[in-house]
Amino acid sequence: MTTSPALPTALAEIVNDFKELEERDRLTLLLEFSRSLPPLPERLANHPELLEQVVECQSPLFLTVEAEKTETGEVIRLFFQAPPEAPTTRGFASVLFEGLDGLTAEEILAVPDDMPEQLGLTRAISPLRMRGMSAMLGRVKRKIAGGVRPAV
Amino acid sequence: MPVAVETNEKFAAYAHPERLVSTEWLAAALADGAASNGNLVVVESDEDVLLYETGHIPGAVKIDWHTDLNDDVTRDYIDGKAFALLAAAKGISRDTTVVVYGDKSNWWAAYALWVFTLFGHEDVRLLDGGRDKWIAEGREFTTDATAVTPAADYPVVERDDAPIRAYKDDVLAHLGKPLIDVRSTEEYTGERTHMPAYPQEGTLRGGHIPTAASIPWARAADSDGTYRSREELEALYLDEAGLVAGDEVIAYCRIGERSSHTWFALKYLLGFENVRNYDGSWTEWGNAVRVPIAVGADRGELPTS
């Protein structure tokens, strides 16, 4: 059996929270995540051209990443937007936001691509829908690998 | 005991008005307590598996197209035993009137209705306009969990696929008779193999089944998500697609969901007796070895040999 590299602490905790639940309750937890996805800051909400759409998601999802300088070095900030009628997509975005926002580029790039599978949701929501979340993570990593725009 | 059918001017023009209910009718039926004795069960079926949890018609139950209706191993629908368990768990008896509604002009609701019909459930109707119309009209909506009284019994009925479901071989045998391709124009021409802004589902070839007419499914729906009038539907499917009364028709899309919406319009609203939904659709045809494919905007010709 191959073991995946360790996840960043916040994301590992989220994965554990999901895993500890019964399958049905994992859906409820995903719904709670969907409610806590923060709205875009005004400077981005008014500039949709700064976001890109992840077309692999079933519902419209837009995201962008920014680099932010802190006292301890540069970190990555994540921004997601998805409509309220797409709670599953919002839930995925919210998991990635809470698990990865504020980490370094290296930490995010080290997250294994199969991380969404570890949530144990595949059977409850179907493999097709899980692909949307993998695509979201993939896009975040590709954007970071391709060079990140500093915050304006 | 089935619930009395709705009569109104719009529905009366359709071949089978008993297959639709309006939002007014459903609100009145619910207010009258039709759902309190098992005679009427309202089912929500959406694209997003969590949408129901964000709010639903009071008393409605959820049925998910992926996780409830599809077999989780074979690419097929659940069997009679699983369907009986599902129905009973949702409070549905064999003689219950089931009203299905959902998001996106009832796209997935029509799919659920089609699967209910595979099992010969007699009285299953669509809420014209679906979830969005109900919400737009400011009707009662809740996040309260529905307390379901499971039905005492739902018989194990084996699926009868042949009348309304076509397999790939059926489509090959059907070639020469009318086909309706309900996908977007870009999918029909072969420019893309999946819906704009939707997941790529791994189709190797683009295009359409030769001779199929292109009538994207959403053209059957009005801006409020209700079905268009009989007259408008006739303009679409008779005048534009060229169907004539008595035709045997097969509708298809990518996995059979959008074409369920068109199947419903052809069968119940226009009264074509022999309409089948090819659920293998483009994800099967576009990957199958040596089946004919036409590309571009023209319907294309059947191979001569």
From TrEMBL, chain A:
Superkingdom of origin: Bacteria
InterPro entries recorded: Fe-S_metab-assoc_dom
Domain Fe-S metabolism associated: from-to ranges: 16-142
PANTHER family the record matches: SUFE-LIKE PROTEIN 2, CHLOROPLASTIC, SULFUR ACCEPTOR PROTEIN CSDE
Family: Belongs to the SufE family.
Protein name: Cysteine desulfuration protein SufE
Source organism of this protein record: Arthrobacter psychrolactophilus
TrEMBL record, chain B:
Residues covered by the Rhodanese domain: 36-143, 179-294
Catalytic activity: thiosulfate + hydrogen cyanide = thiocyanate + sulfite + 2 H(+)
The keyword GTP-binding appears for this protein: no
SUPFAM superfamilies: Rhodanese/Cell cycle control phosphatase
GO molecular function: thiosulfate-cyanide sulfurtransferase activity
Protein name, entry field: Sulfurtransferase
UniProt KW keywords: Repeat, Transferase
Biological classification of the source: Bacteria, Bacillati, Actinomycetota, Actinomycetes, Micrococcales
Residues forming coiled coils: none
Record-linked PROSITE patterns: RHODANESE_1 (PS00380), RHODANESE_2 (PS00683), RHODANESE_3 (PS50206)
